[in-house]
Amino acid sequence: MRVASVTMFALVRAVTYAALFIGFVLVYLPGRFLSWSGIVAPARAGAPQVAGMIMVTIGTAIALWCVFTFVFIGKGTPAPFDPPRKLVIRGPYRFVRNPMYIGAGMTLAGAALFYESLSIFIYTGLFFLITHLFVVLYEEPTLRRTFGDEYEAYFRGARRWMPKRSRE
């Protein structure tokens, strides 16, 4: 019973943090850019809008897969101040070390495409730059200190941003 309540509490925390992050970084700020630039939703859905919606859907699915993997495998959340208790190298993390950021960036890029918005596209680039710096300067050193050799082995086996090609 204790394990179930710990997992449920981690799930509630993860959903709360994810909602706040998604609400601010992926909805509120891009909405501000659209408002400032005067861009409104397109009257018609053409190829850019369809491609954008597909990207947003895939990016959101990847990010949610990551959140649930953190909760059920890592027993924690994606928030740096409430991280997983166990190193998460399963689920989407078996392909690449930072799938959550990739999913979030894909969502932003999809929104930029949907609205055909240069300002959201630039924001997406800034998101990836800031995220890369955060990963290199904070996240990776913290994971090395926390998980030691287990993280080092994972680090050597999975790339930061692009999945490795299969040797088949």
What do these coordinates show?
The chain has 168 residues and is mostly helical. The N and C termini lie far apart (45 Å). It is built from four helices and no strands. The protein is globular and about 50 Å long. The longest helix has 40 residues, at 118-157.
Helix content: over 70%
Oligomer: single chain
Provide mean pLDDT, rounded. 84
The biggest beta sheet, please? none
- The assigned structural class equals mainly alpha
Q: Could you tell me how far the N terminus lies from the C terminus, measured between alpha carbons in angstroms? A: 45 Å
Task: Return residue spans where pLDDT drops below 50 for at least 5 consecutive residues.
Answer: none
Please count the helical segments.
4
| Secondary-structure element series | HHHH
**Radius of gyration, in angstroms, nearest whole number:** 17 Å
What would you call the shape?
A: globular
Strand-residue fraction?
A: under 5%
Find the count of extended strands (DSSP E, 2+ residues). 0
